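User: Structure with L-homoserine, tokens only please.
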Amino acid sequence: MAKLKSIKVFAPASVSNVGPGFDMMGFALNKPGDEVQLSLNGGSEIKIKKITGDGGKLPYDADKNTSTAAIKSLLKKFDLKIGIDVVINKKMGIGSGLGSSAASAVAGVFAANKLLNLKLTKHELLEHAIAGEFIASKGIHADNVAPALFGGFVLIRGYDPIDVIQIDYPKDLFCTVVYPEIEIKTCEARELLDENVPLKIAIAQAGNASGLITGLLTKNFDLISRSIIDHIAEPKRAKLIPCYDEIRNAALKNGALNCNISGSGPTMFSFSDSEVKAKKIGRAMLKAVVRSGLKGKIYVSRINDKGPIVL
Ligand code: HSE
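Assistant:
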């Protein structure tokens, strides 16, 4: 069945929630992203041989790592007992809000599909990437794995069954993300959220979510900007980011089309309509991070329309 002996794949970081789209919207970035290398080992077990770039934080137990848990879910479904050695190069912070666990899960299943010549579609790979992501977030959500896998801007219309819709977007939309180097565990950030949402909040959130999708499809930057408001997660989570207000103000003062938390944070993202503006916004956001005594990183990128690629 297998044709290749070894394969290396890059899968991109992603911004999830995108303001009003908690657990249902996300888009992929060109950079950063994780790399995962798989090699057939002639045995019947999945073994993590090496992890770099994680500062020693990630487990080598294949059941506890998002990349290998995703691969194991895939092999189990097809009753395949194939030994694979795995090397994971983390190129972004753990618990950064950039979909780091999702990128590794996606890279793992995408690489396994190619290595074993399974010819599965991305839709068929998705459930296994979600199973991998579950290891880190303890929740079933696809708003990082779906954009990392499919590329582009993705709406998850529903989970039962999963319904992933790719949304067109203006090609001159630039994203700036700033990562203040602290760690926020998604599972802990999810615990802050209320189980129930009052009707008024549900209406406001649905209005903004619909506005954002309409703004993207009609390339209406003003509508995109005024729709990036989150009434559900952000009010509970902003306090986890020490320089939240400062970053947001810096982005808005420099012409950002709004600014919000990326995933469960601490990374924050903003949109703008030119690369020059996006870089200027990035410098201002980073200054706000540094002023608060933290280290930070900025990335400026168009929306990545490819998803994972073989290296
Ligand atoms: N939608 C998820 C959350 C994304 O906000 O908890 C986590 O990266």
